[in-house]
Amino acid sequence: MLKATNISRIFKRKHGTVNVLSTVSVEIKEGEFVGIIGPSGSGKSTLLLALGGMSRPDDGFVSWNGESIYNWDMSKRSQWRGASVGFVFQSFNLIPYLTVFENVSAGLSLANNGTADDRVINNILAEVDLTARKDHLPSELSIGQQQRVALARALVKKPRIILADEPTGNLDPDTGKEVMGIIKRQHATGTTVVMITHDPNVSQMAERKIRIVDGRIVD
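^ thats the sequence. predicted structure below, dont judge the formating
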């Protein structure tokens, strides 16, 4: 389904270069729940962005069902992300001047060539228990509610794969359990999940774990 082959990512810094990823290869099969673990700064987020078509590797390639996604032009890659990939970021990345409903609608519009179905949006908001907050701005929500909006935005288009970067990292334990419950229910429908986490309890929910240290897969 999604495969990285010998990818490397080098960042230039003031005092030299940093090898963030070094010849990393990983294959994600359809329907899997994969956890990516490792110390801070080990390259986990860079790998996730490369898998999602948002950070071109300096070497190697990333393929989706056998096609190299970085050989596609930017428009095709954006269409693929909009239709097939649901991103969930630790920082939420909500649009501050849009309401909850409008933020989720924006996610659906990207997948449907600019169109959104209000019924579908209302259904996903009910699923994440945000119906009563749909006309609120992100600044009017708790941290946990903002993360649920980010999840709803990712899930509303029914993506084939979810890429989640520390989805519980900013949450209290109870809210984290709620968010992971939503992700697990989505995985149970057949959606592939790739998730970065530092939380050992959260990582235990994954069917397979990939450990990265200093830009290399060690386990």
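Residues 173-188 form the longest helix (16 residues).
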